[in-house]
Amino acid sequence: MQATNLAIGILFVLGGGIAAQWVAWRFKLPAIVLLFALGLICGPGLGILHPATAIGPYFHPLVSMAVAFIVFEGGLALDLRQWRESGEGVLRLTAAALPINWVLGSLAAHYVGHLNWGTAWLFGAIVVVTGPTVVLPLLRHTKLRPRVAAFLRWEAIVNDPIAAILATLMLECLLISSSHTSDASLAAVEIGPHLLFATMFSIGCGIFPALLIKFLSARDLLPEILRIPMILAFAMGVAAICNLLMQGAGLMAATVFGMALANLHVTGMSELQRIKESLGVIVVSCLFVLLTADLQRTVLSELSWPIMALTFTVMFVVRPLGIYLSTIGASMSWQERLFVGWIAPRGIVAAAVSGVVGLQLQEAGYAGANMITPAVFALIASTMILHGFSLRPLARALKLTLSDEPALAIMGANAWSTNLARVVHDRGVPVLLVDTYAPALNKAAGVGVPVLRAELLSVEGQESLEERPADYLIATTPDAIYNGLVCARMAPDLGRQRVFQVSPGIARLDLYHGLSRDSRGKVLGEPAWNFSLIDSRYAQGWRFGSYIADETISETRLTDGPAMLFMIIRKGTAIWVSSAEDAIPAEPAEGDIIVLFMPPGQEDASRTGLPVVDGPIPAA
Q1: Going by C-beta distance under 8 Å and a sequence separation of 6 or more, which residues neighbour residue 599?
Q2: Which of 467, 491, 515, 543 is geometrically suited to a Cys-Cys bond with 496, CB 3.0 to 4.6 A?
Q3: What is the 3-state secondary structure (H, E, C) of 542-599?
């Protein structure tokens, strides 16, 4: 029976969670909403999952460790250079906004939610957090401008452990006050030194192992096979140790450890980036399903009009007002302040903390303590749904997003790649020509092609590309090995089916003796289309051209003639780059843009801005 229950739990938690993530990716939906709904259905809805009962006393410690991993993952993305580039806005959101939101949230809990003062201050401490478990997945699915994304990312990751510690501090104050005839000064005297020591110890526990990793790596004392296991073990270990001192301190230690690794620039972190992103998706999926499924029907039955009024007051009054007050005079536009003031979804940390502290307050006999969990749950559900679905439309309306059109990056500026970029650009498709050679880029910029002078294999190049993110990449330099390096570096970010390179030659494409598929991109076009062939044909007068497909165009007509089919573009949907390694060749639909490399006399005769090219597709 236990084995059957375990299999059912794994099916719904792990299988259902990943299925929800895929559906969200496929249909561009907020994954957190689907995960939340799955947990509600499997838990309080159908009664299939009972995580706390099945796992027992280890449930909350396991949740705490999982959250520590998530904030550690977020800490790895907190480069101090982004803080400096984002101006004082990040500092305002992480230092000034938190206490203001705490005070305003507590006042709302007392006067709107009718909670007594002690419970209200605890509620305010819990809901100041904007969890990275919710914010980071939303950022992955929305092309926000880097500065705005940095605001939300820093606030969520930095405030997460601080809010958890603040809630723990408030809980201890309330418990001590209740046992000392409400002597608040005595509570502060007892807790203050403990809080200071726990905070400093957590910061030290985060920094020391990062310095140790840096020391061992620099002296070749850390084998590659142990690098990632040791880093993950340190992350979990420091979180567990610091949680023994104070609940929530482990989150701070894990965050500091991640930040220290990111800013010490420890070598070999790229492998960890890939692994932790994959693990992060699994952990977030499982946590959302488990914590939502663990909600009791009695909690849902305690939802009342005062709680709903409190929820909407926090969302529509407390958060916007707190952000407005904390960012007065900051170098943030009104659009950024409005956007950040609205987007504040609460997540796993708020759910986990409310469940623990609410139970302890009830056991201590605090009136109204039973309302903390349903009040926090109502806020989590409302913010995830409303913020999850409104983030993208609001960002678009405020012009805080990058283009949603599929974008193409071309690495290597030469005569024919510039011609290709210009043809694509003239069709209104976002394109970026990247190179390190300024004169070649100047020629491209002179004909209107967007350019970027950067080395894509450098940190600076990666950061520069984030400001104008690409969805597809074609490496077109004469160096086949360099093209392969660029494609291999970009493949984990863009997807291995979206990075292409000029053919390195038929012999090098041999699956056994040639270049490994993991070390290069998909071949552009046919194996014989190497750089020399394309370059020589360009010198002979071949040029790129584009056509709008109609219902008479077929794959056979595109490939029968001398023209070389390079790509098919469906505006707002995808770019299909021609490759002999495609299992199923792309079929153009009516309205698609077809880009061909054609001999003299057949090139595109259209002018920029015309929707359709006069003339048929070149025939054989």
Answers
A1: 537, 540, 541, 542, 562, 563
A2: 491
A3: CEEEEEECCCCCCHHHHHHCCCEEEEEEECCCEEEECECCCCCCCCCCCCCEEEEEEC
Across 11-131, where does the E strand assignment appear? none
Contact predicate 130/345, CB 8 Å: yes
pLDDT tens per residue, range 570-597: 887 889 998 888 877 777 888 889 999 9
From 514, 524, 526, select the one nearest 475 (Cα to Cα).
Answer: 524
Who's near 350: CB < 8 A, 6+ residues apart?
Answer: 126, 127, 129, 131, 163, 376, 379, 380
**For 618, which DSSP code?**
P
Q: Are 434 and 452 in contact (CB under 8 A)?
A: yes
Residue 473 tokens read as 């990449």
Instruction: State how far Cα 454 lies from the chain centre.
Output: 24
The neighbour count for residue 206, using CB atoms within 10 Å, is 27
Give pLDDT tens digits for 102-148.
899 999 988 998 888 888 888 888 888 776 767 777 776 777 887 88
Residue 130: both structure tokens together: 């904007």
Evaluate whether 50 touches 294 at the Cβ level (below 8 Å): yes
